[in-house]
Each structure stands twice: as C-alpha cells, then as structure tokens.
Amino acid sequence: MLKIGIIGCGKIARVRHIPEYLENPNVDVVAYYNRTFEVAQSYEKTNGGKAYASIEELLNSDVDAVSVLVPNRDHAAVTIQALKAGKHVLCEKPMATTLEDSLEMVKTSRETGKILLIGQNQRLAKSHVKAREIIESGELGEIIAFQTHFAHPGPEGWTGKKDSWFFDKKVASFGVMADLGVHKTDVLHYLTGQRIVKTFAELKTLNKKYSNGTPISVDDNAFAIYTLENGAVGTMHVSWTNYGEEDNSTIIYLEKGKIRCYDNDEYSLIVENSDGTSINYILDVLTSNKEQTTGGRTSTGVIDEFINRILTGTPSLLEGESVIDSMKVIFANEISARDSSIVGIE
Ligand SMILES: NC(=O)c1ccc[n+]([C@@H]2O[C@H](COP(=O)([O-])OP(=O)(O)OC[C@H]3O[C@@H](n4cnc5c(N)ncnc54)[C@H](O)[C@@H]3O)[C@@H](O)[C@H]2O)c1
Of all atoms in ligand 1, which is nearest to the CA of residue 165? Predict the structure, then answer.
C-alpha cells in the first residue's frame, strides 16, 4: 500500500483528494499537515492517520507521496521541498505563480527522479478525451476557430467565505484568469494538440467586492483571443460573476463540422457534421465545484491517475512538464492585459 500525505487540509482536500484516495484500493492516507495545526488534527480524528505539526516532520516520515493543496503562492516551494525529501507530488492548479517556479518544479522532479503531476483534471473529463480522439483522427479536417468558457458565481460558494484568499493578490497571485482560465487554456492545448502561440487578453474586476464593499484585488473576468500554431483563432472567457448556472463549455469549429463539449445538459459531447448529421454522446458530467460542495460526485480520476503513475511508471496525461505551455499562456495573458498588447508565446 502506498502511504499518502496531505499538505494543506482545506476544501479541495476534503471534497476531492481525500475521498478519491479513500476509493483507491492501493493507498492509505496516513499524514496531514496544515498551517493551522488544529485543522490537521481534525482530519486525524475523522479519517485516522497522523497530524504533523510541521511540514518537515511529515516529509521525514515514511509517506511515499503527497498532495500539495495549499493556496497558489506556496505551490512551488512546498512541491520542491517535498520532491527533494523523496516524495512523489500531485500539486493542484495553477501549477505556480511564476514561469521560473514552474520550470524549477519540473527540473526538481527530473533531478530527484520523483513524479510530479498537476491537477489539470479537465484533461481527464470524458467528453474532452473523446473530442481529442476525433480531432486527432483528422476526420473533421483542420481546426478553424474555437470558443471556451468557464463561468460560475465565484469561489465564495466553494470556500463558504465572502473574503477568501482567492481574492487576495498576495496569496492567490492571479484572479479568475488563472483559477479557471488555466483549466480552459490547458483544455485547448489538450483538445487541439497545438500550442497557443499568440494572445490578446483583458483582465477585469467588473463586479466582485469584498464584504466591505471595495473591489477585490484580482480580476473577476478574463477574456483572451488566442491563435493556434495552424493559424486558427478563438476566444476564452472565464468569469466569477456568472450568477446563473455554471458554464464550462468548449466548442471547436473544424473544416467538416463542429465539436461541442459540455454545452448541452443532456449530452456531454455533440459532433455536428457538415452534411447535416450529428452524433450525441452521453459520457459524463464534468465534475463541478457546485456538485462537490453539495456532496455530489467526487471522482475526477486525478488520484487514480497519480497512483497508477507511481505504481506502473506509465506516463500520465497530467505530467508537470506538459503543463508548462499552459502556464506560459497564463503569464502572457497577464503581460498582454497590463500592456494592452498582443503577446507572442515561444
Ligand atoms: N482542480 C480544481 O478544479 C481545483 C478546485 C479548487 C481548488 N483548487 C486548488 O487547490 C488549492 C487549494 O484550494 P482550496 O479551495 O482547498 O483552499 P482552502 O483555503 O480551502 O485550503 C487551503 C488550506 O491550506 C492551508 N495552508 C495555507 N498555506 C499553507 C502552507 N504553506 N502549508 C500548509 N497549509 C497551508 C490553509 O490553512 C487551508 O486549510 C488551490 O491552489 C486551488 O487553486 C483546484
């Protein structure tokens, strides 16, 4: 049995990582560390295992692997510390808050020989996996254009707090552009098999306020016009101010048809052919914050992917190195919005 440690015992630990570890027959969750010790102790009480008072003590224990589930600012430092201590790491998104840190995480993984996966769970969503297969087969021809959205009412519903760290630039570093935008930017890379080579982005704080009425210190809406390697152009809009139903859809327009992922309540994937025929797939429902907050579906497949990677050595869809291109786009979006300029991405 693999021994797992949880570093950062907050919401994602509670509703996603720990439940998915508990469902995996090959692991035991044996260790918890949280900046506030009492929080780690509460997990020890409910789930068994041991709460540690310091990260060093946890990393000196015999755990084989850890989930890094702390706020964005500390992803890189904690991940690098854990890799150097000889632990495999599954780190949540966004990978890091600078490109240098993202690259250092990958380098440390390579040097230590320890696995580094990033929680880009949307790559594992069944509609995306099937859509990628269809696009890769070439049956619908070249990609011409695309649009992708991730919009919900904001992290307050997830954290239960009006003024959470998600709104604090010093801790989160980014707003919705990286919180949700890293998912959709990454999905575009995954679906199309191409890199985004150019962006023009707007990051705005349009509506979201702290409880004292002042605007939050990060963007609550982000818009980007992306260009792919083959010249296809499309848009991404991510938002924390969609006060209706969550929108998590992606549409790809190709020479011989159109692929619609998660933009229909009944069908998770719809393929519309240019001859007027279409195929509707019922594959899954994308795991959403709302469902997990209300105790619904728990499995994103991320934990099984991590454990399988450790036990079999089979390369994973979530390798740290494969997320670097998406992080480059995130940082390019920041520059583009700051300078009102079109930014090329190497
Ligand atoms: N993949 C996804 O779709 C998804 C969804 C939600 C959150 N996340 C990511 O998961 C991470 C955690 O988010 P959350 O919603 O669980 O936040 P949270 O605030 O609920 O939990 C974070 C926990 O970490 C603790 N903490 C803070 N700094 C720490 C440190 N240096 N060492 C140890 N513990 C520390 C806090 O006390 C808190 O208990 C974030 O990076 C977020 O972006 C990913």
Answer: 19
- Shortest CA distance to 35 belongs to which of 73, 89, 83, 80? 73
Span 262-321, pLDDT tens digits: 999 899 999 999 999 999 998 877 766 555 555 555 589 999 999 999 999 999 999 999
Task: Determine contact, residues 223/236, Cβ cutoff 8 Å.
Answer: yes
d(CA 69, ligand 1 centre) in Å: 5
What's the CATH fold of domain 2-121?
A: Rossmann fold (3.40.50)
Superfamily holding 125-344: Dihydrodipicolinate Reductase; domain 2 (3.30.360.10)
Phi, psi of 30 (to 5 degrees): -115, -10
* Mutual angle of helices 324-339 and 181-192, in 10-degree steps: 120
In ligand 1, the atom with minimum distance to the C-alpha of 36 is: 37
* Ligand 1 pocket residue status of 121, Cβ below 6 Å: yes
Q: What pLDDT, on the 0 to 100 scale, is given for residue 292?
A: 54
In the chain, which residues have pLDDT < 70?
287-298
Longest dimension (CA), the chain: 63
pTM: 0.95
CB-ligand 1 contact for 90 (6 Å cutoff)? no
Question: What is the helix (H) or strand (E) element at residue 273, kind and residue range?
Answer: strand 269-273
| CA angle at 339 for the pair 335 and 341, rounded to the nearest 5° | 85
Indicate the top mutation candidate among 69, 75, 299, 305 to test ligand 1's pocket, ranked by most ligand atoms within 8 A of CB: 69
- Cα(120) to centroid of ligand 1, in Å? 15
Separation of alpha carbons 28 and 21, rounded Å? 7
Predicted confidence at residue 297, as pLDDT, reads 52
DSSP state of 16: I
* pLDDT given at position 298: 55
> Three-state SS for 159?
helix
Sorted by where each begins, the domain ranges of the chain are 2-121, 125-344
